[in-house]
Amino acid sequence: MNKLLVALLSGVTALTLAACAVQPAAHADLPATVNATAPANWSVDADVPRETADPAAWWNQFNDPAMHELVASVLNDNLDVQAAVERVKQAQALTTQRRAALLPQLDANAGGAYTRQNTPPPLGYVKQAGFGLALSWTPDVFGGERLELLASQAQLVGREHAADQIRLALAADTAAAYVDLRWAQAELKILQDNEQIRERALKLTQRRLQYGLSTKLDVARAQNQLSDLQSRIPRTQSTIQHQLSLIAVYSGRTPESIDKLMLANAGETPVIPVPASGAPQMLPSDALLRRPDVLVAYATVQQRAAEVGVARAERYPKFSLRLSDGLLASSYLGLPTLTDNLFSAALNATSPIFNAGRITAEIEQNESRMRESELHLRQTMLEALKDVEDTRSDLVSTTESTARLTDALSASDQSLTLSTQLYKGGAASFLDVLDAQQSYLRDADALNQSKREHALAAVALYRSLGGGWSVTGDDAIKTASNKTETTK
């Protein structure tokens, strides 16, 4: 019997080693695909100042402690991130199951029986009890199980990068919400400052009216200017509350439970966080290899290529081996127990002969799905390149616009001061003061909006560059294949 066992194991091992296992469908690796798609340089590269900072934790480039603390808190507590982590754990469990299917399974079995029969002696009743071990194994001769493991590992890599993609988007959305909050708070401060200016102007016209140096028309105009500005304050306060509520949702908490002291108390002069002066030095190919959406798309290509191999493996025979050994004790009519050593070995093989084209159709379906995933990968890279180019262009334009508006606001401030002084001295009309007030408010709003757009452009640029969440492209490619090599 032992010779039979050795012969069976030797035959199965020989088949496994001699067989040419089915391989995944051929496809270009990620670096080759990126190099064939990405340009050598960015189209706006010459206009963008370069920064040597690493964009891994890009929110540190804004030098705002409150922003740092907020993003870190959101990444730890957000519910979408926690759900993405659970999906990664599910993929890890599936990979463990696939790997276990490649190995033999050993089971213990035990049983007992009592049988009473209406037959002449010596029979009448029989007692039996036994236990043993059973070994079952489905050798992966043609690689179908190994390819299923490869597909599950690619799915695991894809879900890990998908979780990185959620973290990147969440960090960018949180930073953008924080910028919008500071912008709304700065806008409220601008309105309050201009409210004081216009209140002083209204009082000035009222005093001049008492001495006959002004008219009721000037007072009405001053009151109209003041009331029109005051009508904007409630809307701005509502915007601040909306941003606080949005940040609370990102933090995985209710708006009532968020710590508003850190966010709502912006100090005497709310400041929109100012990003680094330049963009990180990065080639288009490097940016594509860092982006989680590109890595997710490539992991899908790997998964589909492995699934094509799984479908092709259905054409070949499948083998199963079962070995069992144990002891059986029997007692007849209370006679002394008889013990037997039970051993069995079985090798089964099944091979498809006729399936009405089902296997071929399944292969064609999986090949089409793989080609679709390759097209999706190329489309994702093209959209990624457009995203980076657009955000780099926005960063350049908002930088220049902010500088010009800073000069414009300084001129408007000087004009307002001079027109007010001339009006007090009777050398200018109140229309000059009203025009100067409107210009000052308009330029202050425009500068505040430009600072907001500049900060948001920087956030969008860091997001488009991948944010530094994922490993490099080469490491991502090796993850699934290296795991499979260990199972061969």
From TrEMBL:
GO terms for molecular function: efflux transmembrane transporter activity. Keywords: Lipoprotein, Membrane, Palmitate, Signal, Transmembrane, Transmembrane beta strand. It is a lipid-anchor. Its main location: membrane. It holds the Pfam family OEP. It is found in: Cell membrane. InterPro entries: MdtP/NodT-like, OMP_efflux. It comes from the Bacteria. Residues 1-28 form the signal peptide. GO terms for cellular component: plasma membrane. Belongs to the outer membrane factor (OMF) (TC 1.B.17) family. This is RND efflux system outer membrane lipoprotein.
